[in-house]
Amino acid sequence: MKKIIFSLFVALSSVTTVQAADANAGKEKAAVCSACHGPTGVSASGMFPNLAGQNDAYIIKQLTDFKSGARNDAMMAPMAANLSDEDMADLAAHFSSLPNVNEQAAASSGPAESTGSTVAASPAGNVEIVSSTPAAAIYQGDVAAGKSKSAACAACHGADGNSLAPIYPVLAGQSANYLAKQLEDFKSGDRKDPVMAGMVAGLSPEDMHDLAAYFAVQTTKAGTGETNEAGHKLYIGGDSTREIAACIACHGVTGKGVKQAGFPGLTGQSQEYLTKQLVSFRDGTRNNDNNGIMRNIAIKLSDANIEAVTQYITSLK
Ligand code: HEC
Ligand code: HEC
Ligand code: HEC
User: Annotated region Disordered: where (predicted)?
Assistant: First the structure.
């Protein structure tokens, strides 16, 4: 009897938790998840599970286990690391409220528009507007205004964002969200670089979005480096014995990144710049990555790994 009362209590209290959760807050918090699990909880790749319509209690348990390490996955561990119990409940409420994959497929054979998520191309080019993600992830800049403001950047980054010297990163075709975040981070000091600190000091948030928009719609030049077998293996497969996540999950098959999520493209960057960033994430001198997403990976990379994977990235087209 005691046992029955106890389990009834557990059942009731978990119902209360679920009711307290806020699916709308969960929707906002899910912006980063959409890179892998899809904006509507249906994943675009067979590597990632669908979350739409999943039981909320099950989602909470999995997130708790990824956080504690009871369930081990190199990609989900950094995602869950900083989630509070409330975040998990909100995310679970959001994903469980979405129509499941079959319902979404049925709905899209009629007039589209399932959960309010739309991905539209802007007239300026290839910049996505994802209405299901929060403000920070929405592309806001004005390309023409960005072009005139970019005169100050050309000396180092090139007029079209294709830098000529290897110490200067390529900005052409980079995710607008990522570029705007870097400019904000240089200004706040979250990302430290003496040259860039001076460049951003006078920029307003609007300037940053305009500059980001301008560079995002330029065309990245293809990489011209030699490939590297060990680097290729690490890039596409990670290293499960050392819990290193595959770069491909966030930076994409051809190194173009995941624009909406602000996961940067790497294609066209020099080996020198890539190496400097990985070493800086590894020693913590670059620490502006949310949730330590890159530091958790870089800390496990040896010098030989960094040399191989950066060499491989320079061959991506
Ligand atoms: C970089 C890709 C990536 C991102 C971003 C990501 N996930 Fe995952 N997620 C995965 C992978 C891969 C798995 C499968 C892990 C495994 O097989 O052990 C997974 C599994 C899960 C599961 C377990 C599903 C099941 O049926 O077992 C949940 C729940 C989940 N993710 C929630 C989230 C949430 C919430 C976020 C955002 C805060 C998120 N994920 C962000 C890649 C990702
Ligand atoms: C004098 C040279 C110089 C000028 C001018 C300059 N930059 Fe930079 N920029 C750099 C250097 C060097 C870095 C790399 C810093 C590092 O190693 O972390 C950088 C990095 C960046 C990054 C980060 C790129 C990434 O992939 O993470 C962005 C964004 C950026 N610059 C935008 C701009 C904009 C916009 C302007 C004009 C307003 C500008 N820069 C002007 C030298 C310059
Ligand atoms: C779970 C997602 C994820 C995985 C997996 C991942 N990255 Fe990243 N990476 C990011 C994010 C997000 C950033 C940008 C952080 C920020 O906001 O500054 C980044 C930034 C970088 C940068 C700096 C880019 C620039 O322009 O300055 C390099 C280089 C990089 N990653 C290389 C790698 C390599 C190599 C691997 C595989 C060994 C890898 N990443 C795996 C998410 C990931």
Answer: 102-121
Token duo for residue 188: 């706040």
Ligand nearest to the CA of residue 178, numbered in listed order: 3
Query: If one looks up domain 137-216 in CATH, what number appears?
Result: 1.10.760.10
Q: Which of 192, 199, 267 to mutate to test the pocket of ligand 2 (most atoms within 8 A of CB)?
A: 199
Answer yes or no: is the C-beta of 93 below 6 A from any ligand 3 atom: no
The answer, yes or no, to whether any atom of ligand 2 lies below 6 A from the CB of 156, is yes
Check if the beta carbon of residue 90 is closer than 8 Å to that of residue 26: yes
Residue 174: pLDDT above 70? yes
Q: Per CATH, which fold does 2-101 belong to?
A: Cytochrome Bc1 Complex; Chain D, domain 2 (1.10.760)
Model pTM?
A: 0.69
Domain boundaries, the chain: 2-101, 137-216, 229-313
Instruction: Classify domain 229-313 by CATH number.
Output: 1.10.760.10
Q: What is the pLDDT of residues 227-245, one digit of tens each?
A: 999 999 999 988 888 888 8
d(CA 87, CA 65): 14
